[in-house]
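User: Hi! I'm a student and our assignment asks us to look at how structure tokens line up with a sequence. Could you show me two examples?

Assistant: Happy to help. In each example below, the sequence comes first and the structure tokens follow. Example one:
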Amino acid sequence: MGAATRIMLVDDHEIVRAGFKRLLDSSEDFTVIAEASTGEEAYQQYQRCQPDVVVMDLSMPPGAGGLDAIQRIRAIDPDARVLVLTVQECEPYPSRVMQAGALGYLTKRCAPEELLEAVRQVSQGSEFVAASIREGMNSKEPTKLSQLTKRELQIFTQLASGQSAAQIAETMFISQKTVHAHRANILAKLGLTKTTDLIHLAIRHGIIEA
């Protein structure tokens, strides 16, 4: 039997990491060697530990979270193998993640066996995308959110999670004025009038939980 696949878990909720760590460590094929709670920490830990697979959430403070972390990790290691495990099921999140260089995309509602199989496939350099996610990615019908730029999608996600303009400005290292400008553009593109409409849209799309 070969050496166990070395995994880094990245999620800003400690209790979530603990659950996934217990599941992964229960298999002789895998061992969790590192954990991180932010995209920046993931980037630093990756350089230090060089895991075989990164299992990463998307929505993490500060800044842009998982998407930026994937791009930064792939910039220093083009062979990095990243599996995204998140609550966000709808487009354009999966497409943007795969374009950034991830090999896999699962939702946190997946069965334990599916997560283990996904990690196994990704560790071998194969893509693994949940069937329901793949169906949405292959749809010819663009979602409203597909109109948003990468930065707008990041700010949309943070606004939908209840963060204020001041909080977003601080974590993304931009001015509150810039946040308000992005917010106005986001509302206009989505045909909405206020932030509460944006939150309701995010709930309907399963981006955040009610």
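Example two works the same way, sequence first and then tokens:
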Amino acid sequence: MAIWDSLDSEFAALDAAGLRRRRRTIDERHGAEVVIDGRRVINFCANDYLGLADHPALVEAAIAGAKGWGMGAGASHLVSGHFAAHEHAERRLAEFVGCDAALLFSTGYMVNSGIVAALVGRGDAVFADRLNHASLVDGSLLSRADLRRYPHGDIATLERMLAESSAPRKLILTDSVFSMDGDIAPLPALFALAERFDAWLVVDDAHGFGVLGPQGRGALQHYGIRSPRVLYVGTLGKAAGVYGAFVAGATQVVEWLMQKARTYIFTTGAPPLLAETICAAIDLIEAGDGRRAHVAELVARLRSGLDHPERLMASTTPIQPVLVGANDAAVALAAQLFEDGLWVPAIRPPTVPAGTARLRVSLSAAHTVEQVDALAVSINRRLVP
């Protein structure tokens, strides 16, 4: 069994490079604190930016949804799996982010894997930020369009690429908040280029929905961008505290995606109870200015409390990466913090470029000032200059 036996050597190579990943199992969750193997630690891993994932209102909405609709949808949305709860959630999401229409998907990965191929294909071109999420990369590859990746945030290079392209259809593809760096894409400049070169602009706001913009309405509202050429992708398992994702935009474009996005057409609809919970989450996000202000205070406090500001990346968002460098050093530092009761993930290649392994600190409205201060003290004590 040579194929089977080769896995052993490949696992050994992962171990030697400090790249093997392992899961921890959460036994209990109480806000920002979790219990793992009988030990209570503070969770700085989760993307639960507003602290809504175990909010009583969402639990109650899920219970009510289960009682009203049962569990599974039973079929794809286009067969018999589209319920009134889904319809209401889509209308509520579209209105909330300032778009005409929205389409619910089971996951953000499925949105990004499906909508690019619905908009462009062979002979067309996708222009993507080099630090885009893996789902955007995979969606581009599945489209069979020519994939051109520009250096992170480099508007001048992107402009040159667009000017040189003779593709009949062009699509600019970007995260809003970059998940491993925490910085925000130059969306006004990207939109200006999309207008100038008659291109689609797809913005994955997975880490901005609920956090950016007035009342947490997202990155497009943050910059006042609205156009039929812009598609907005939002994730519901992060700041919203639920599960799933959606794409929003002009009615005609969303209708086209419903007809052509394979990851929407050929999958069972999400449980309708989740749609009920999504609506409850939007209400909490809309009323969550206090939560967002608290997160901003925690960001400022962490950044001012660390003794190694040169290790911090230029982020004003709840994602606060602390650069370490070597894979083994990042893993060791994360293990030491865990011993201090602080759970922070070590992020390594291929998620980030080689030599830039880091701690990825995710701050949440569920964290207290005292917990963030404890994290800063522990990093200062453990991080080797």
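Here is something you could point out in your write-up. The first strand starts at residue 26 and ends at 30.
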